[in-house]
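Exam revision sheet. Question 4 asks you to relate a sequence to its structure. Input first:
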Amino acid sequence: MLIMAWPPFRKKNHNSFEMIHRFSGWSAVAVIWAQTVLSVRDQQRVTSGETLGGALVRSPLIWMLVTITVSIALSWFWLREVPVDAEILSSHAIRLHFDYAVPVNGSFARLSERPLLEWHSFATIAAPEAVNGHPRGYSMVVSRAGDWTSRQIGRPPTKLWTRGVPTCGVMRITPLFNRLVLIGTGSGIGPLLGHIQMAPCPVRLVWSTPSPEQTFGKGIVDAVYKGDPDAIIHDTKVLGRPDMVKLAWDTYQNFGAEAVCIIANEKITKKVVYGMESRGIPAFGAIWDS
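Answer key, structure tokens:
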């Protein structure tokens, strides 16, 4: 467990890391249960003729173990298979629509085809009302970034497993500010789209991606411009890769924002957050294997 938790191993072998931690953790809890029951039985034999059941009920160790076990099992009580309305955007991306919940902006949900073996987290785009034939609930933009995502694009699912409830992520901080610059690259538009469509404050979007309409569809591009008519969409296929720090700095100054939020890959996220903070600007991005 310790070796697989080392960031270089975890990043390259995430599914193995997840399975080893899950099954090893459960095995450890089972061993502690066995040790505790045997220990209480031995003490009960020494002290009095009390039954094993009575001794277990009186043992604080047992109640601590019950609390730990229930805490571990709690999210699995919410395990369920839900229907999916899949919308193919391109050979690179797909949008998955769900109708079982309407989450708050800035949250994410976990999906799986094999609940015991692997889970994948994606940001939610809330849909308080049915739109374009898709149900009330929420959606996710999933781009090709590995075997699992490629499989969803190649064979659009009709059902997937979900566990727990949508959980708040880094973008949940947006209501703390009066004016914000939102920066995204590629499929980072997914976590940002909900904040553009139902912005808690004036926002300015900077989105850098290759061929946005061909990759993510006209619907998402139209939704971006509807939420922020002055959004900056930088097509890297046409304009080349931008200096994201300079672009963030210029947009921050021109828009008169209070902070910058970014959803991108690890390298760009750290570069932009450092570039903004070194200029005294509050900047927020995801934490990578902290």
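Marking note for examiners. The chain has three domains: 2-76, 79-168, 170-284.
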